[in-house]
Amino acid sequence: MASPKVWFITGAPAGLGCKVVEYALSKGDNVVATLRKPSMLEDLTAKYPFSRLVTFPLDVTDTPSITTAFNQAISHFNRVDVVLNNAGYYIVSETEGMPHKAAREMFDVLFWGAENVMREAIRCFRDVNRPIGGRILNVSSRNAFIPQVGTVHYASAKAALECLTEGYIAELDPEWQIKITLIEPGLFRTSMIQSRMTEPVHPAYESNPTLPSRKYRALYPDIEDTHFDGDPAKFAEVAYKLSRLDDPPIRLPLHRVALESARKKGESLLETAENWSSWSDDVYLHK
Fold first, then answer.
1. The pTM of the whole model exceeds 0.85
2. How far is CA 15 from the centre of its chain?
3. Is 158 a catalytic residue?
4. Is 65 among the catalytic positions?
C-alpha cells in the first residue's frame, strides 16, 4: 500500500480548496491547509487529528509567511508532496473601469502569490524531500483561454500564471522529479461567486445596457444558479487523480465550457498562423 501523501493547499477555507482538503483526507492523505483565518476550518480540525490535518495562517502576498508555512509543514510531516495553488478572487468591472490599485492587488494574489508558492514548493521538493520530487497543481481558469468580459483583469492574471507555469516546466531539471499541471476549471459553483467584488459601471458604458459587460453584469445575482453547474466535490476527485499520475498533462481544461474555450483558442491560433503565414516570408536577414 502506497504511503499517504502530504498536501499543501492554499485558499483552503471554502470552495475548491476546501473540497480538496476534505477529499484528500478521506482518501488517507495528510493535509496542510493554509488560509487567512484557520478558524474557518474548525469542523474539519475537530474531525481529524493533528497528525492528519494542520492549519496555518497564510497570506500569499506575504512572501516570508509562505516560507514559514512550508517550514512548519516540513517540521510537522517531514515533507510536502502535492501543492494545490488555489488562493484567489475576482472583481466584476469593465476593463476600462478597473482601478489600478484594485487590479494590482488582485495580481498580487493570483500571479505573484501563486509564483511565490511555486518557488517555495520547488525548493522543498528538490532540497528537502527524500526521495526528491513533488506535484504542483496550479488552479488557473478557462478565462486564460478567452477572457470573460467583465472579469478581464482576472483573466489576465490567470493567463500570466499559465505562461509562468510553462516557463517553470521548461526550465526544471527532470531529475528533480517535479511535475506541474495547470487546472483550467470552467463554471464550478463555489463561494467565490458570492464573495466577488464589483466596481461601479464605467460612465461611458452606463447608457447602453446591450454592451457585453453590461449583459454580463445583468446575470448577477442569479448567475450561480443559471450558469455554474460544476461540482466542486468532483473537482476535488480530479485533483486527487492528477496527484497520482506518473505523467500528468501540462494543462487540464475541466468542464464543458473550459473545453470549448480551449478548442476555440486553439482553432483561432491555427487559423491565424495559416492565413497570415505569408507575411513572414521575407522578414529575415539575408545571408
1. yes
2. 12
3. yes
4. no
Q: 5, 23, 141, 158: which one is catalytic? A: 158
Active-site residue, selected from the candidate residues 154, 179, 213, 243? 154
Q: Are 214 and 109 in contact (CB under 8 A)?
A: no
Give bridge partners of residue 82 from the DSSP assignment: 7, 135
Could you read off the pLDDT of 264-286 as tens digits, one per residue? 999 999 999 999 999 999 999 98
Amino acid at 285: L
- Rounded Cα gap, residues 230 and 234, in angstroms: 8
The x, y and z cell numbers of residue 130, run together, are 527524500
| Peptide bond just before 131 cis, omega within 30 deg | yes
Classify residue 200 as exposed, middle or buried by CB count within 10 Å of its CB (0-12, 13-18, 19+). exposed
Which pLDDT score is estimated for 14? 79
What are the tens digits of pLDDT across the range 94-139? 999 999 999 999 999 999 999 999 999 999 999 999 999 999 999 9
Task: Say which of 93, 140, 213, 243 is annotated catalytic.
Answer: 140
154 is catalytic: yes
The CA distance from 82 to 103, in Å, is 29
